[in-house]
Amino acid sequence: MNMAGDRLLALPEDWNCMLAIAAHPDDLEYGAASAIARWTSQGKRVIYLMVTSGEAGIDAMTPSVAGPLREQEELNSAAVVGVDTVEFLNYTDGIVEYGLPLRRDLARSIRRHKPDIVLTNNFELRWGGGQFNMADHRAVGLATLDAARDAGNRWIFPDLLDEGYKPWNGVRSVLTGGAAGSTHAVDVTDFIDKGVESLEKHRVYIDNLGVDFDPDTFLTFNAAATGERFGCDYAVAFEVFQI
After folding, report:
1. In whole angstroms, what separates CA 43 from the centre of its chain?
2. Can you give the pLDDT at residue 127?
3. Angle 238-90-208 (CA atoms, 0-180°, nearest 5)?
4. Distance spanning both ends of the chain, measured CA to CA
5. What pairing do the DSSP bridges indicate for beta strands 17-22 and 45-52?
6. Could you tell me if 198 and 37 are in contact, meaning their C-beta atoms sit under 8 angstroms apart?
7. What are phi and psi of 166, to 5 degrees?
8. Which of 33, 89, 92 is nearest to 57 (CA)?
């Protein structure tokens, strides 16, 4: 595990397609979106898959109202960084469980989109900064890691074969953002503004957090700290799991 002062390695970018999987709308926008803006500018295809619609995330709104609103904010946010495909699995926000149904649904999506790289959020108990990580993030991140391997094995979830989804062994690695064990990074100096704009698209959610939160300050502070470890102005770090 890298300690805070260790140098981060350059993340390989010799790939063409990424599937980015998150528990909620806005999860990818707290750092990864700046890197995604870089990758789409290179002509890479990135697809977003949201496990929930984030419908339990706004205390002042019922889930039936908040869910569609947060889905639209995610669609708007993704467009800022060059992502035009956003899918929702419609799991219930706040009570996502790690298990076979989730692994199967994620494996199905991986087989359908055939990504070279899968991206998700940290699934450990804590974020890199030490804060407690919530249950949905942990369940989705771990299930994503397992599903990336499940997708390549025809004897795991054979019912997917009946649905027409053949095994996909093409996932080279899974990247997790926000992890304490981050080892690699990408330079987002030219794309941090896109990352900020992308997070700003979640304006209704941000305005209902109940705390003073500025997307620009949050993202630039974190990206500058990572950039110092990577040797540039702004960077985003990831832990890399080879599949």
Report:
1. 19
2. 87
3. 70
4. 18
5. parallel
6. yes
7. -75, 155
8. 92
